[in-house]
Design goal:
Aspartate Aminotransferase, domain 2, 2 domains, 399 residues, Aspartate Aminotransferase, domain 1, globular, alpha/beta
Length: 399
């Protein structure tokens, strides 16, 4: 048998973790808090149907939607991203600095493809987004973790690791971080922008949840605090439009964007034209503000119910984060409870699954077994309330 590429072996553990998360989303026998799917009510089904009919009622738009398109993306959607998602958040970018990608993950992939050679160091948060770690492993990069505080990355530790490891890339999710839900303070965002310039290191700012804020003060992205070429901004339209549309976007300096466009050209030529067109019409038709308000109302309510359920029912000594947006609550169980070890029993006894915290750490000496990631986004309030009571009782019985 012809051997697989060596990079395949380095991906095995994370692929196994990812499979478990994805399977939990489709297992009808389990209540799944392990994945990160939007609420069913968040999909603008009727509106997308109407917009699609409208597009196919206009021959010029229909041809544009079905034909090969520009690799960098449909001009109307790039303009919509600029007007509705970048300018309101303080990011100044020309259209040639905005690319539409096939989902937010492809944006991260393209940055990796452009910058990472085997053995290059990537600094990540501890814990970090599991899918990003899978991509870094696939490019045979070495991940080194940086400590996190209650307001995001520990900047002193980050600078120390920059000096020690001379990384090619710093990967961060500063707003409603996955998996913890933590948001980085504005002061730290400014300091990160300064560090990128001082040490000539590239920051990849991944920001898929920032629009979904339902409490607290809005924070500008790191990219908004600098004109440096050393910050690339990656985002997704999955959480605010639909994940099945497979749309995301990148913002980078024009010269870097030209290189990223060539990376994309080698992969898929262009992003799906039909979903780009539908999404562009969604924004240009003025539907986004009310849709976003509806999303935030759904997720605020579900967050509140989950937080109360954890506080009321989990064992004494349990700690959790209090996110102002996004999908996730990060839970630390009291000593003596191993969330990873108990997960199969939780699946069997109370028919509930969650994210095992150990899957989100890159350090060999940090098993994260006392941590759990809960996604409240896709589960109705009554189910959350009942599940937190059952799971709390289950954990208490294991003390």
């Amino acid at each position: 048998m012809v051997p697989y590429a060596k990079r395949r072996d380095s991906m095995n553990y994370i692929i196994d973790c990812m499979h478990k998360i994805m399977e939990s989303l489709t297992n009808k026998d389990l209540i799944s808090f392990g994945g990160g799917a939007p609420a069913r009510e968040a999909y603008p089904i009727g509106l997308i149907g109407d917009l699609t009919q409208s597009i196919f009622g206009d021959e010029e738009k229909a041809i544009q939607a079905l034909a090969y398109g520009a690799t960098i993306g449909l001009p109307s959607l790039r303009k919509a991203v600029q007007d509705h998602l970048l300018v309101p958040n303080g990011i100044a970018a020309n259209l040639d600095e905005i690319m539409i990608t096939a989902g937010g993950i492809q944006g991260i992939f393209l940055v990796c493809k452009l910058y990472l050679d085997p053995g290059d160091v990537v600094l990540v948060e501890s814990p970090t987004f599991i899918h990003a770690k899978l991509l870094f492993d696939s490019f045979e990069a070495t991940c080194q973790s940086c400590a996190m505080d209650e307001d995001g990355l520990n900047i002193e530790d980050l600078e120390s690791k920059i000096k020690k490891y001379h990384p090619k890339l710093i990967y961060t999710m500063p707003t409603f971080h996955n998996p913890t839900g933590i948001s980085m303070s504005e002061e730290k965002r400014k300091r990160m922008a300064e560090l990128a310039e001082t040490y000539d290191v590239m920051i990849l700012e991944d920001d898929p949840y920032s629009e979904i804020r339902y409490s607290g003060e809005k924070l500008k992205p790191i990219k908004a605090h600098t004109k440096s070429k050393n910050v690339i901004y990656a985002n997704s339209l999955s959480k605010i439009f639909s994940p099945g549309a497979r749309l995301g976007y990148l913002v980078a300096d024009a010269a870097i964007m030209q290189e990223l466009t060539e990376m994309k050209l080698a992969i898929d030529t262009c992003t799906n034209g039909l979903t780009q067109m539908i999404c562009a019409e969604f924004f240009s038709g003025g539907h986004y503000p009310s849709h976003l308000r509806g999303l935030c109302d759904i997720y605020r309510s579900r967050r509140d119910v989950m937080q109360k359920g954890i506080d009321d029912h989990f064992p004494k000594g349990t700690k959790r984060t209090s996110p102002d947006g996004g999908y996730y609550i990060w839970v630390e169980l009291p000593q003596g409870l191993d969330g990873r070890e108990l997960l199969p029993a939780a699946n069997e006894v109370v028919k509930i699954t969650y994210g095992s915290g150990s899957d989100f750490f890159v350090e060999e000496n940090h098993d994260g077994s006392q941590f759990l990631r809960f996604s409240f986004a896709g589960i109705e309030e009554a189910v959350i309330e009942n599940a937190m009571a059952q799971l709390g009782s289950f954990f208490k019985s294991k003390l």
